[in-house]
Amino acid sequence: MEERKPSKATLISLFLFVVIEVLGFSIVLPLLPYLVQYYGMTPTQAGLLQSSNALAQLIAVPFIGALSDQYGRKPLLILCIAGTFTSFMILAQAKSTFWVFFSRILDGIIGGNISLVHAYVSDITDESNRSQGLGMIGAAFGLGFVVGPALGGIMVKYSPQAPSYLAAALSLLNLVMALIFLKESLPAEKRVVISERESIFGPLVRQVQDSFWDHRTSRALWLRFLYLIAFTAFETTFGFFNKALGNDARTAGYLLCWFGIIYSMIQGGGMKALKARFLEDDLLRWSLVILAVFYLSYGYIQTTNQELFILVPLGLASGLVHTLSTTKVSEALSVSSLGSGFGISAALGSVARIVAPAISGYMIDYYGSNTPFVLCALICLYLCYVHYTLVEASRIEFM
Q1: In whole angstroms, what separates CA 123 from the centre of its chain?
Q2: Residue 357, exposed/middle/buried by CB under 10 A (0-12, 13-18, 19+)?
Q3: What pLDDT is recorded for position 81?
């Protein structure tokens, strides 16, 4: 069988798409408290701002995916990129809180579908190079998370709108590249015809039922979901806490960039080296313990130097838990259900991005900017127990 090998132009276009999608939320993370001040929002409203984007994604994901199965990946990818461009332009020119919310909801509906890239890469690769293609998406995600906060911190010194204008320009470049270089990955003969639309959702519904009835799968998804709650709460609180420390948006952006570098490094060569020496379950267990300790400690730091130090173990442990929790989900799924199973995991990730910012914003509003870190620590301690039950369920399954 002939090996399917994607072109460099296609990979570059997909890479940029993912980077810009991640920039869409990472570029504003250190700016949230300053946007709050500029538009007169409360921290609770800022948390709801992030939640609204995630809620829109949660609702839109299955429909966008179903449409791409019927009409091909390229038209829907172009629609999503155009949506990202439009949303950034609206955000840059927003004069009121309404338009800020509108821009983030629009981006969630038609501009926030990295799942389409996963489908595209799966279309154009085979078993010999699929992991390499999907690994590219992970690298792009890490790069966006590293560059976004730093870029936002640099650009905000010119105006609160400058980061949005820059992101819009990058989106426009990405749109042009997609129109010129991106080829359709799903041949017409492999597409779902309109008369079979209802069958698209049948396997997904069955997979949802199976996932939550199966002890091992449900525990793996629960672990992944609660970790994302804690991580998103940390992201949401980061800017507010740094403002309370006296750091400006630029400094907060650099600090989050530092965290992103550590986070990305461990997902690369560091992960391979650690897995060669330690069992995955031991790595996951101790990473959760480290997160609990340093989330709690983070809420009581008083200087930027202390923050630089604590962000190192937080970045290392977060990178490990992110990868290993994904692996646990993969191990709990059968080969035939990987696609729908990861779809469920992605939907739970959207739910986490809805719930965590709203809770964090409320806690900041009424109890102080360090209280969400206590919640993060408690979640990670509980996850140690969840991980124990997951290991036991795995042993029973293979007995």
Answers
A1: 22
A2: buried
A3: 86
pLDDT at 330 over 70: no
Residue type (1 letter), 346:
A
- Render the burial of 187-223: b for 16+ CB within 10 Å, e for the rest: eeeeebeeeeeeeeeeebeebeebbeebbbbbbbbbb
- Whole-prediction pTM value? 0.67
Q: Report whether 284 contacts 339 (CB < 8 A).
A: no
DSSP letters along 91-134, please? HHH--SHHHHHHHHHHHHHHS--HHHHHHHHHHH--TTTHHHHH
- Contacts with 398 (C-beta within 8 Å, 6 or more apart), sequence order: none
Q: Which residue has the tokens 């069958």?
A: 199
Rounded to whole angstroms, the Cα distance separating 49 from 170 reads 23
Structure tokens belonging to residue 264: 């990305």
Amino acid at 386: V
Helices 215-245 and 280-298: angle between axes, nearest 10 degrees: 30
Query: Which ranges of 156-193 does DSSP label H, i.e. alpha helix?
Result: 162-181
- Residue (of 363, 263, 240) closest to 322 by Cα position: 263
* Planar angle of CA 39, 42, 43, nearest 5 degrees: 115
45 is written with which tokens? Answer: 């409203």
pLDDT for 374: 92
